[in-house]
Design brief:
By secondary structure, this protein is of the alpha/beta class. The chain is about 30% helix and about 20% strand. Strands 1, 2, 3, 4, 5, 6, 7, 8, 9 and 10 form a 10-stranded mixed β-sheet that branches. Helix 8 links the parallel strand 8 and strand 9. Helix 3 crosses helix 4. The chain is globular, with a radius of gyration of 18 Å.
Length: about 300
């Protein structure tokens, strides 16, 4: 701990959250949730046929100007729940038949989540746990998740630190995310998919192609291949970018991705021989953003 303050994420802002302060992420000492429900729009090996039990936490250590979940990541929408209630939510989702418990942007609440999982994981909770994040994670925090998380679902957003600073307020993002993904892969090892096509264990790296960012996206694919190879990791290339939140302040990203931009990155992925997923261009629609209406909370 830094002067007793929060150092869970790379910001290491030192906020006294237990004393009522809020970190860069906007989180205080309270658990804040915006939605907990079946989600069918993750990768096929995550959502499968019965859905992923997705729990959306409020707050985020990144500051992406185009965030599609800005209502919870930046605006802080959510309802306070106790650790007991969070345990009930996990078990309720399991009872509904979901393939996994999918924790979205959970880093600010790591301590509470670990306490909950200590109580129920491997006992009442028997399905895989997914850590779904923007990739901006401290290795030290990830090490604490070893043995608790079965599947990591990180983004790798940028190769260029200048773009990372401009659009997410984090010039150190590329180096931090590569180190974080390396730790994730150390924990999970090579991905394992069951006979039913559902991921049991492993790391799936997501990359969202941004408008005007084709060359950076190509460099991101190169980074992933050169740092992690193509055999042990799954790569999910996403085309769903939609101008949300503050995108209008940046004219170069205030549009959809073109077919040329996306397909050129797809070609690079195929050339490397990655296993994984290509998102259809039709996914770039606002209706694919979950409704943050406190369902299941």
């Amino acid at each position: 701990m830094k002067n007793g303050g929060c150092v869970l994420c790379p910001r290491m802002c030192g906020a006294d959250r237990s004393g009522g302060g809020r970190g860069f992420c906007g989180a205080s000492s309270q658990l804040l949730l915006a939605r907990a429900a079946l989600h069918m729009w993750e990768e096929p090996c995550i959502s499968g046929t019965r859905g992923s039990g997705t729990v959306f936490f409020s707050g985020c250590q990144l500051g992406c100007v185009f965030c599609q979940n800005y209502r919870i990541s930046a605006d802080g929408f959510g309802a306070a729940v106790t650790e007991e209630r969070l345990a009930q939510i996990f078990l309720s989702l399991q009872e509904q038949g979901v393939h996994n418990i999918n924790l979205v942007s959970a880093t600010p609440y790591t301590e509470a989540i670990l306490r909950v999982l200590d109580r129920i994981r491997g006992k009442e909770l028997t399905i895989p746990v997914v850590w779904n994040s923007g990739g901006y994670e401290r290795v030290e925090t990830l090490r604490r998740l070893d043995g608790y998380v079965d599947i990591y679902l990180p983004d790798y957003k940028y190769h260029d630190p200048a773009r990372a600073e401009k659009y997410s307020g984090a010039a150190d993002y590329p180096a931090v995310a590569l180190a974080a993904i390396r730790e994730m892969m150390r924990q999970t090892g090579k991905y394992l998919i069951g006979d039913d096509g559902i991921l049991v264990r492993g790391t799936v790296i997501r990359h969202l192609v941004l408008p005007g960012g084709r060359h950076d996206s190509l460099a991101c694919v190169d980074d992933i291949a050169q740092n992690f190879g193509t055999d042990d990791v799954l790569l999910s290339l996403m085309s769903q970018y939609t101008p949300f939140y503050r995108a209008a302040e940046f004219p170069e990203i205030n549009r959809r991705v073109t077919t040329f931009e996306y397909e050129s990155v797809c070609r690079r992925v195929r050339e490397y021989g990655f296993e994984g997923f290509f998102q259809e261009k039709s996914s770039a629609k606002e209706e694919y953003t979950p409704p943050f209406d406190l369902e299941g909370v």
